[in-house]
Amino acid sequence: MTTSPTIVITVRPAPVTSRGQPFDAFHQGRHITTSRTPFYAAARKLIEQGHDPQSILVMRHEGSDRDCLRQRLGDAAKLTLEEDSRKGFRFRPYRPRADRPF
Predict the structure, then answer these.
(1) CA 93/CA 27 separation, integer angstroms
(2) For the chain, which end, N or C, has fewer CB atoms within 10 Å of the first or last residue's CB respectively?
């Protein structure tokens, strides 16, 4: 049985904007994205950079060695989270916007 490689990203809060609390995401010490959904945005960036979609993506908060999210990279890249005032957070298929591809 072959084990998929694991990719670890670390996130930390970025300055708050009028749209909410974004997070900076880092892979191997390099900044890869800033997003309110850093796990999913980072997955898309990592695939764009040539990482294997079969890899396992793990997210940790800066200063912690605990995994807080874990998913196959290719699956994570297909999703985003949306917040609805009545229903709370919901997973949605990712659809790039022309003015903001990630």
Answers:
(1) 24
(2) N
